[in-house]
Amino acid sequence: MQPFTYVRASTVKEAAATVAAEPEAKFISGGTNLLDLMKLEIERPTHLVDVSRLALDSIEETPEGGLRVGAEVRNSDLAADPRVRSRYPVLSQALLAGASGQIRNKASTAGNLLQRTRCFYFYNRDMPCNKREPGSGCAALEGFNRMHAVLGASEACIAVHPSDMAVAMAALDAEVETAMPDGKTRTIAIGDLHRLPGSTPHVETALGHGEMITAVTLPPPPPGRQVYRKVRDRASYAFALVSVAAVVERSGDRVRSARIAMGGVTPKPWRATEAEYVLTGAATSDPAFSEAAESALAGAVGHGGNDFKIPLAKRTIWRTLAAAVEGA
Question: In what residue span(s) does the FAD-binding PCMH-type domain sit (predicted)?
């Protein structure tokens, strides 16, 4: 691990300004991802600004009927909150599907959103990786790519985003609040927070250097039944091969509205808007679910080892929709 300095921030403004003042400075909270990357010298910050003691650890009601989740709320606390469990069960289910209990006790809301890919080649400094070292190439394209993306990838990078929580938040239309070094704040739709790789996969989010996530706002819960389904290699904690968050509202034997988000198959939490369009007004039937699944994966491209994800994702969407409709 490279030498670094450390400071504990006392205010959000101080934290943002301190990171902004040094090009290689970073925020740290739970450290469940950053510390691993520092040990491997993939991340080499010269200065760490600890934001874990800031007063950003509460979950509050919003005037609109939603919830405002502080950036420092731990994943385990968010999953267990009675309001989240009753009004946003898809979020609670997604959180409990991710990581181990010990990691959820340390991982923060903001840290979960900003965790980096678990691509094997990103973690292996002996292999080329455009995300770790821009311009070096992507070893996954011709390598072991079983875990990699089939939607939204590029010739520069086919890594996936690992978060379960962010997939549920994408289905819920969450918004991310940030504070910038100049004291200004802004709100970012969660669909705009993460970037697709394109030719610059090392630029992963819309955040500027020193810009700090302070909260995530959940709008009032959408009508309908919420279901999160995750397919992984083992029952204990593992990253998703495919995950689907669905919210389906039915009226009689028709779908009144539907929201579908996917994880494990894309470089960012992925909203399947085409599938939602197909489902809206359709019969609550197997053919409609199949058509929606086909639509969601219409542009999918496999890279050999991950070809299986395309039919797997279709089946997972189908089963998630069927489960959501059953109780809607």
Answer: 1-223
